[in-house]
Structures are given as structure tokens and as C-alpha cells.
Amino acid sequence: MPGKLKAKIVAGRHLPVMDRASDLTDAFVEVKFGNTTFKTDVYPKSLNPQWNSEWFKFEVDDEDLQDEPLQITVLDHDTYSANDAIGKVYIDIDPLLCSEAATVISGWLPIYDTIHGIRGEINVLVKVDLFNDLNRFRQSSCGVKFFCTTSIPRCYRAIMVHGFVEELVVNEDPEYQWIDRIRTPRASNEARQRLIFLMSGELQRKIGLKVLEMGGNAVVGYLQCFDLEGESGLVVRAIGTACTLEKISSTLPATATHPSNSSPSKDMKEPGFGEEAPGVPLSSGPPTPLRAQTFSSFSPSKSYSRQSSSSDTELSLTPKTVGIFLFPSTPALESESSPLPSAHLPHHLWPGMASRSTTPPPLRLSQSDTAILRKSVSFSEELLLAASGMGSGGSAGKEGGPLKALLRQQTQSALEQRGVSSSSEAFVRTGEYPFFTLAAFPPGFLLHVGGVVSARSVKLLDRIHNPALGNTRSYKLLDWNSFTADEPETRDAWWEEIRQEIKSHAKALGCHAVVGYSESTSICEEVCILSASGTAAILSSRFMQDGPLDTEHRLSRQPLCVFSTGSERVEGDMGSSASLGFEEVVSPGCGFCHIPYDELNIPFPAQLTYCYCCRRYKVPDVLFTTIDLPTEANVTGKGCLIQARLCRTKKKAQGEGNATVISNLLPFLEYELHTQLMNKLKLRGMNALFGLRIQISVGETMLLGLASATGVYLTALPSPGGIQIAGKTPSDITYEQHISNMQKKINDTIAKNKELYEINPPEVVEEIIGSPIPEPRQRSRLFRSQSESSDEVSELDLSHGKKDAFVLEIDDTDAVEDIHALLTDSPTPAGFYSCNTEIMPGIQNWTSAIQMFTSVRVFRLNANLTNQGLNKIFSDLCENLLKSLYFKLRSMVPCCLCHLNFTVAIPEDELIQVAVTAVAMSFDKEQLLENGKQSGEKTLIKAITENDEQLQFNLELNAETSAPNPLSSPKGLSEVGSHPSARASSMEKASPLPEGRSRSLRSNRSYSGSSVAVVKMTPLSFIPGAKIIKYLGIINMFFIRETTSLREEGGVSGFLHTFIAEVFAMVRAHVAALGGNAVVSYSMKECVFMENPNKNQAQCLINVSGDAVMFVRESELESTSVQTQSATTHTSNGAEGT
Amino acid sequence: MSVELDVFVGNTTIMDKEVYQLWLNGYTVNDAVKVRIEGGVMEECEASAEVLLSDTMDQYRTFQMCERLLHHPAKLANQLLFQIPPDRQAMLIERYYAFDDSFVREVLGKKLSKGTKKDLDDVSTKTGITLKSCRRQFDNFKRVFKVVEELKGPLVENIRQHFLLPDQLARDYAAIVFFANNRFETGKKKLHYLTFQDFAFCAGQLINNWTLGAVDNIMEDMDVDLDKEFLQELKDLKILITDKDLLDQHKSLVCTALRGKTNVFNEMEANFKNLSRGLVNIAAKLINAKDVRDFFIDLVEKFIEPFSLCLLYMGVIKSCILRMYHD
């Protein structure tokens, strides 16, 4: 019996009036975990009840602790009829299961009802006593840390990165069960919310198990998604990167002069690290006392024991030889699993799926039908790779080959060194895919980047048949391991297919790994598009021998520690010290641009030149990636958001036909998106894209494609040529004029953009002599019949060999449209920058002013629009949204919208929905050009005292401390709930104090005792000007809101506005209850909105996630300097607030 | 083709002061957009009318959502739905409870009842303040009145605490509540020349000196009602005009106190008896609720008018005499 969950219900406030007669409420609370329920007493006639209950204790398995949420229901007692539910609070207790996260959940949490929204708040206390579980066959994975952050979390260092973990679970969607016809919408919504909570918990536990098997203790870049497949069920799937992390001791040195987060580690930890690096499991050595008191899963021998038979002793030894970063399995595996077809992955390659699904599909489609249909979309290899955006041809064959050989050798030896260790078996299982969901890496980790690889496939959904779930009485998920659920494997197989494809693409690019990897789906009726994308890359395996390098780091006093997360701020050339890459000294600023593939065997037409930084290695002319810009990259000027938007009509079709139509459309969609991206990139005078995210959304009658990325000018890459257009009929004078006008416009725009983004690279004077590459012409042409990346005369013959092939036909509507699209992108207003990555190149001195926001727009189309019209509407929709954002945030200028994350959806036939979540961050203009850290720090510090930091923090404290005091509690209550009559009466009745005294009390209270702790939210992994001192656990929340009085709630906008605000409020409250003051890596992963205005109804589902953290201002670190890690929430909050 | 849904939600709630004021003033979204366009915000920020409309609608929605919190300002501070910095909260509350002097003059002293509310459209036409704004202001008065009506303790302080208002505004509300509670007549034509601030000052004086709270600071401090005992005792002042000795004594005391302090001293001295009688008569009648209501009108009719009439008369005579007098 490994865990005891304890909960105490303290009080409620702002409850709704449930009894119209008395305008009051007789509230009580049910606390439920698993199948056990406790109740508090009824607190009669109050909107601010003080239950102050006993501790309710649940004795449960740790497996349940991971799967189940604590469910708190607030009800109104009714003597004569059934008790009315006021609302519920679901508390995810996972953060309490990990010793390094939160220890207690305590605070005011909003009481949520799916019909009425937030209805008051409840103050609860939740704790967990966990006992060590020595059972090697246990199913729980308590203690594995989860992070949404797609880099190594600040205040941790990565001892080892194990690789890709994935899992999915399926269930029936309660909304589509027969029972839904007879139950209330509330009951249905609650069933759904609870089910998804359970499924997420289970998913996390299972991923945790995999991580433990691999020998890790954390998942970084955890990405969990829901597929609402309607009739066919509900899929919850997650991917992540398994790591072994070690907390950087954050005992802050009294003389913390450098605010960078790694400074303490530099002083405290690294010497030890240098010594102990060889013994990796022992790296849990230094903090052994700490570990010991945690969970068995951490103590090496126990945790690894699950892996397989003979492993225990070996495992504790093996990693010693391996060193820190290990990535052993991939190349070896690749050779093993090589006989995979590259692009075409017909379904029958996976016989397991078809044959295993023994139960006939309940849908009308016969087995064979589905099998045929479930073929992937077949892109031609060229097209796909062209879409992955690589440059054009070149040489440098010397390094490509040896490099690969070397890698292989190294990894081989790594494997050998590991010997027969059973962990290699683990790698066979899970290391099959050399994928990393991380998008940012410690300097030196990322050696070369090949380009974007992506794969999509169109599937037909049918019901996920699961006999075990026929019995749905409690939604208690059955243990998946206890029976063979074959249907999840169908979904598994689908993803397997895609991943294989990605892997083979990466291989074609000469890369052994895929970084910045993500997966997504788009579902419309019974058609589902599965997409995966990432960046092919070569990662360093040299880190195994760098004990001494670490020391070197320490000596050089670089604030960057290799395995800590790196700088809090972007510092252009910081990585220069991390020049420990390969045996050749590769400049860190350009090394990652050097081509990883064999130039004689380029899988696509590309133009290669010698690197403009080091002049030694080949680089492509354009680089597309899905990762963040490496901090050490050499960048000229600033970056900007670049979007390609596309809308294509599609015939309405059913089932099989529909899937075929979509499959046929997809390649064109991708190609056009790519063309648009490339043109827009050139128009801005830039040569690389980071954070590329292509989203394709299906509707009944159209397909939407939205590609977002951050364009930058990489100094290492050649300057992009311009864009040249030409008319088809050169004899015609009006054409000529028209064309030259357009040409002029384009040239002007390019010049303007270069100025705007401060792109003035050193003039390229000479090509290296003897270069086999022909001198690139300074301008490229816009043309449609050929891959955009090959823009050279020399490539002419590759296409049709005729000059006409380049000519842009002006009377071709598509072409006009293209140019139009190019030129209609309005520039960002003065003082604004935008990007969709974590950091904006060229901006360093952020102030502490940040503003996270979500904006949603739904646009109704008229019927019968042409492609062109649709495109324009869609593009305008996005542009206008951006413009609105700039206007809204004008008070923050100069500022940058970072991590602009657009999601598009087609909720109904004629609706387009665009949702954006981003953070606006102010920076200091004056300091813009200064690179000195000192000045940057000063401005940061100065800025800290500004505006939004001034909220007070003492509310919770006051409320809590006053509660147990019998004298003051009724008074405190009446203060908190500011209902006038309640207050007045309680004053009259209960105040034993003389009036004068009570008055003064009152006056103090109502001012100081009533503000709410500020919780910052940001989609980024850091908070400018602050240091994250603790990760408190993952926030993963799912809410449904429904209304049957849409008009009364302010229409669709009013409804959604309230709901989003409520979601924010609930996230903030839960973070505050965990003891945190910020959410980082926040994202809204799902926002499904459905309306039926005729019935005055609407429903919305929102899924958000992020990492709850506790941060302290760097200024405080410096001034108070004695703050230790043991700082409790309250003290840190208090310090913060004043 | 239309934007069906358009929302923006910030983690820190964004509120534009200018738009807030327009909302408070009861402008429709379209009118507000017009005003903003005229204000030149578009050129400043390179925005289009479309953007402005979207922003204005969004802000209006936010304000509407906040409104129920503003009805109980203390709630604004400890609600969780909107993250609003304290200085912003204070701004929201202060502006929400701000009122137009011209409006308050119309309802000052009236019963804050449904009937009065029904007549607000007349007030709106008369003052040029939108009906929406009138209603908000009226509801504010009524809300404050309801809350502090039964509360003990100093009126101004109660208002300040419950509604988190700045001091001056709390005083003004105290005046409004006081007037409404005692139903002082302020709408008569003769009183039209008086501003709200004139009345507010008087109310302050009355609250401080004539209410229960003013008399007994500890036990029964009710600031809203005039002290009945005190009013009862005022009757005894009649002696000041009935008793010749006392009248003379009173006169000499007043004259001593005022000599040299007012330029109408002579006129005052000359008419002291009449003036004093006027005042004492008003005072003596205050025990009747009806006469309390007419307090201000009585002051004007029985004291200020005769006196100013006298001043006017004296002034004319004086100038005439000066003119007629030839050396």
C-alpha cells in the first residue's frame, strides 16, 4: 500500500446563491478519489463557508495516484430535493509524487461547472505520503519528472539523453455513448473531463515506465495531444524525450554577481561533476541523501531492475563507460532496420495491424477496403525533400563521408562498451526512433542540421473497438497491460509508419537523428491526417569524454555550462567557448549549417557554397528547420515571423473517396506552402527558417495549410538572391511595364526589409578560388514549374532546358496571386518584432514586462468561393489578426511577440478558426546596440521594479493564518467575502470586540488582505530577468464549457472570452496552489469550438499545458543574495510582492 | 463573409483607459470607434478602422464582464478571473463610481427608487448624458446607499472601505447618501444656482455636526440620520427671538465675532433681528421631516433671499445716494 493521500477542505468563498429564498447557500463538499468518497458537514446559510474539515485520508496504490485526479465537488444541501451541484475541482496530484516538485497543494481553487463556469472558490490542502515501492513489477512510475519545455529545463543538467518515448491510449468518447442521450449535458461533460484526466494520468504513468526502463528519470519536451475522433473514440497520445536530469544545486552563492542561471552551478557543482562524470548512475551519487528519501525509482539498482532479467549490477556499471550523452543505438539500428522503403509506405508493410484486428470493423467498410485506404500519401521523394527546404548543389566530399564513418564508429564502440548490457535491449525497443522532441540544445550538442523532414498520411477512422471498455460504469480505465488491446496498436501502427518514413528521410539527408520532432493530427468526420515533422540533424557523440572540457568551462568562467540549459538570455557569441565539437575545430556559430550529407550524393537539387564564416565547409543556400535558433549561431540582423497561408477547395466526398481526394491534394498544398515560404523569405532578404511548423487542416469542402516560421539571416549562409519576374510575352509593352512595375515593387520591398531587419551582411567579395560552384547570380527568379531552391542558371538544364520554364506568366492568375500574396503582407508596425521561436535574434535586453495572450477568431465564408478568393480571405484573416495584436499591445513598444503560435481549424463547413497564443515581451531600445552584459543586466534590474510586478501577495497568507484562530475567523470570513449583508450581520452577531477595535481591523484587512498572487504565464521556457529556482510539476488541464443561453452570455465571443479567461484563472490558481508564481512553456493545444446559434447553444473544449515553476527576480538574487533553495513559497512570494 | 467570433484574452487583463471612459459614458461600440478615430489613434498606431472596431468590441466585452465585480469593488481584489494590477483596479473602481455633477444635481435628495429610475430618460435628455451612463450613476448611488444605510460607523469611512473609493469621491457619495436619506429638496428653481459641490460641502458639515455619529462617537454612530434629540433641542432656540435680552445678547455676540470680517457687516447688523428670526424659525421646525426636506429651500427663502434683497436694496440706495450727494 504505497501511498496515502490526504486532503483537507478549509473554506469557500464567493459561492453562488443557491437558495433564492434566502439568497444564501448551504454548502458541503464531497472529496472523491478512486472509489472512496468523503463528505464535509453542511455549512448552512453562507456564501463563504468555513468547513475547516478534518484530514480526509485515502490509502491507495501509487498507480492510482498517478492515474486518478482528486475530485472535489461542492454541493448545496437541500432537505427536500436532491442536492444541487455547485461545481467541481479536479486536482492533478502528480506534482506531489515527485520529491523535486511541489510538496503540498494549498490555496484557493476556482470551483468549475461546465455549464455555469467558475462559481466561487474553495480553499484546500492536499498532501501525499509516499512509501517506497520495492516491487520490481510495479506498474507505477512515480517520481519521473515531466516537462513541457523543449529544452533542458533551467536549473537542471542533462546527464544523459536517452531518446524518444511515445505512448497512446484510447477509449470511447463518453459524448458518443448511448447513455449520452439520456443524461444531462453537465453529466456528459463531466464524464468526458474526468475520462480525459484519467487517460492523461495513465498515459503519463506509462511513459514514465518507459523512461524508467531506459534508465532515465525525466521526460523533456513532453507533448500530449487529444484526438477527438468522434464516433470512433478518443485517443490520447504523447511523445517526449527521455533524459536523466540532475538538479543543479541552487544554493545561491552570496556573491552571485552573474545572474545567469548557471552561475551557481559553475561555483557549486561543476568541480564535482568533473570528477564524477564517468560514473553516470553515480551522478545520482552526490545528491544521494536526497535521492534516498525520494522514491525507489531513483535509486539505481531498483529502478533499473525492471528492465530485464540480468540487468541490475551491469546497469549500474555500464553508463560509466558511456559518459554523459549517449545516443548509441541509432546508426547501428539504422543499418539493421534499413530495408525500409523511403517514401512509400503502403499499409500492407505492416501486416501486424491488419491481421491483428481480429474483430471485424463495425463500420460499413470492409476490412479490405480500409486496408487499401490506409495507404500513406505518397509524395515523390523529390517533392518532399524539396519541401524540406534545402539549398542547392556543391562539393566538399571529403568531410561528409569520414564524418559519418566516424559517427558510426563511435556509436559502435559505445555499444560495445556497453557490452551485453540489457539496456541495449531497451534501446532496441525504444531507441528505434532517433527522435528528439527538444528544440534547443546545449551548445555543441547539435553538430549539423540537414533540413526539415516531414511525413503525412491520410487515414480513415473507424471505431476503436475495445471490448474491455464496453462496461463504462465508472470510466475507470482498465490496466492496458492486463489484456491485449489490439486497437491502440492500430493507432500505434499508423504512427509507426509515419515515424519510419521520417527516419528514412533523415537518413536520406545523411543524418542520424531528428530534432525538434513533433506530431499532430487533423480530423474531419472520418478522415484523419497524421503529420509528423522534425529536423534531420547530426548530434555530437563526443561529449562522452569531456570531463576535462567541463573543467575548461569552469576555468574559462563562461556562464554556460555544457549540460545546464545555457544562457537565460540570448547572447550572440556565447557559444564560442563551447567549441568542443568535432576533431576539426568547427566554429560553433556556423558549424550546424554545414551540410551533413554527401554532396556528391545530394538527394535533391541544392546549391552549395563554402561557409561564409569559416570558409572551410559547404553550406546550403537556404536552411529550413523546426528547431529554435541555436544560441551560438551567428546571425546578421534581426528575425521575423514568416507565414505561408493556403486554402484549397475540395470536393465534398465520403469515406474512401474523400481520403483519396485529400491524399491527392496534399502534395500540392505542401509544395505551394513551400514556394510561398521561400518567396517570402527572399523578400525579406533572409536565408534560413527556424521553428517551422506546417499545419494542415481538413474540412468538408476545403483544406487549409498554414506554415509559420521565423526567418533569419544566417551569417554562414550565402546572401539570398532577389526575386525576378518576367512576362511571357516580352513584346507587349504594357506587359513589360506591368512587369517592371512589379519588379520594382519587389525590389523596393526587399531593400526596405533589409533595412528594417538590419540585414547588412559584409559584402561578399570573392568566392573562394577554385570553387567548383559557379558564381551565384545575385538574383533568383520566381518561377512555378520547378523547385524553388534551385535558382541558378546552371540549373536550367535540370528542368525543361528551355528559357520559357523560368518565365512567369503574368496572366496566369495563380502567379498574380502569388505576387499579390507576397506584397500584401504588411510590415510590422514600428517598434514591433515577431517570431515564433523562443528567442528573437538581435534582441537581448528584455525587460520584465511580459504579456501572454490568446486570441481566437472565427470567420464565416460565403459559399462558392474560388481558391483564389479563399486564399485571400484566409491570408487577410491572419494578417488582420496580427494587426489587431500589434494594436492591442501598442503600450508595450518596443516589444517582440515571441512564440507566436497559430493554429487553424475548420470547425464547420464554412467556418475558419484561427487561434493564436504568444507572449509580448518589452525590451530596452537604448540598449539595443550594446552587447555588454553589464548594461543589459542593469536595465533588467531597473525594469523589474516596473509596472506589473506590484501586485501584493499576502492574501493567502492572511487567510490561512487567520483561519485557525477562532476569534478572528468569522471576521476574516466576512472580510473575504465582501457580500455586504453577510458582512454586516456577522459583524453584529459575532464580533466580540469593541467596535472601535473592530473598525480598525476591518480597515486594515480590506486593503492589504485581499489581493491575489500574481502568476505569470508564458509560452517560452524562461522568464526574462528572473531565475527559475524550482519546477513544481506539469500542468495539463482539460476543460469543457457548454451553454444553452448563448445570447445571454454575450454571444459566441462573450462565451469564449469568458471561457478562456476562466481557463487562465484556473491555471493560475493551480500553479499558485502548487507554490509557484509562473507557468512556462505554456500552450493551448486544443481549442475546439462548436456553436448552434439557432438553438442558442455552444460548446468549447480547451486543453492547456505548461510547467509550473517558482522564479525569483534576478535583482532579488543580487540584493538579498541569501535566499536559499529552501525558500518556501510564501517567503519567495512575499519577497516578490514587496 | 464576416467575423463570427473575435476574442483576445491576456494573462494580465488589458484595459484601455480611453475606451473605458467611452464605455462608462455610455457610448455604443460604433460611436466609441468614431470618437477614437477622431482622436487620431489610428495614425499613431498604423491601425485600420477594422482593427479599432475589433479592439473596442473586445474591450467593451471585458468591461461588461468586469462590471459585476465593480459592483462589489472589494471582490475585484480577490477574484481570480482577471489578473489586474492594483493600480489598474483602483482606476477601474474610481472611474466606475465617478459621476457627472450635472447628473447628480438632478437626483440629489430624491428617493433612489424605481420611480426615479424611470424618469432617468428625462434627466438624460436634459443633461445630455447618455441614458446608459445615467443608469450606471443612479445604480451606483443606490448601491452605495443600500450598503451603508444600515452600517454603523462614520459614513465616509464606510463608503471608502466598502467601495475602495478615494477620499474625495467617498465624501461626495456620503453627501449623496445623506441627501437621499433625508430627502432634502434641491430641485426647486430657487436652488438651481447651487452646485453639487455646494451641497456636498453642506452635507459634510451636517454629517459632521448634526448626526448621531457626530454626537456619540462610540455606541450608536449612525451618520446617515440627523440626530433627533438634537433637532428637538433646536426648538429651544426660539427663545433667541422671543426673549429681548437674549436677542440683544445674541446680536452683540455675533456682531463682535463678525466685526471686520465681512464687508456686509453693517447690513447684517442692521437687519440682525430679521435674519436671526429667519434662522431660528428654520431651526425650530427641523423636527418635522417635511421641514427637514425643505431645509435648503428655507435657508434660501428665509435667510439668503431677504438678506441679499437687503444687500441689493442697500447697494442701490447707496450708489444712488452717493450720486445724488453733491458737495
Folded structure, characterized:
- The complex is a heterodimer of chains A (1138) and B (327).
- By secondary structure, chain A is an alpha+beta fold.
- The longest helix of chain A is centred in the N-terminal third of the chain and has 30 residues, at 185-214.
- The two termini of chain A are 45 Å apart.
- The model of chain A is unreliable at 251-431, 465-486, 543-585, 765-810, 928-1010 and 1121-1138 (pLDDT under 50).
- Chain B has 327 residues and is mainly alpha-helical.
- Chain B has 3 domains: 17-97, no CATH class; 101-210, no CATH class; 228-309.
- In chain B, 70% of the residues lie in helices and 3% in strands.
- Chain B has helices spanning 17-24, 29-39, 41-45, 49-70, 73-78, 86-97, 101-107, 114-118, 120-127, 131-149, 155-163, 167-182, 196-210, 212-215, 228-234, 239-242, 244-258, 265-270, 272-285, 289-293, 295-324, and one strand at 2-10.
- In chain B, helix 19 runs antiparallel to helix 21 (295-324).
- Chains A and B meet through strand 25, helix 19, helix 24, strand 28 and helix 25 of A and strand 1, helix 4, helix 5 and helix 11 of B.
By secondary-structure content and strand pairing, the structural class of chain A works out as: alpha+beta
Shape of chain A: globular
Estimated helix fraction of chain B: 55-70%
Number of domains of chain B: 3
From the spread of the alpha carbons, the general shape of chain B counts as elongated
Ends distance of chain B: 92 Å
* Chain-averaged pLDDT of chain A: 68
What's the number of helices of chain A? Answer: 27
Radius of gyration of chain B: 26 Å
In percent, how much strand structure appears in the residues of chain A? 25-35%
Give helix % range of chain A: 25-40%
User: Measured on Cα atoms, how large is the radius of gyration of chain A?
Assistant: 30 Å
Low-confidence parts of chain B lasting 5 or more residues at pLDDT below 50?
Answer: none
Overall structural class of chain B, as computed from helix and strand content, comes to mainly alpha
Largest sheet of chain B: none
- For the secondary structure, the number of strands of chain A is 31
Largest sheet: number of strands, sense, barrel closure of chain A: 4 strands, antiparallel
Strand order across the biggest sheet of chain A? 4-1-8-7
Say how many strands of chain B there are. 1
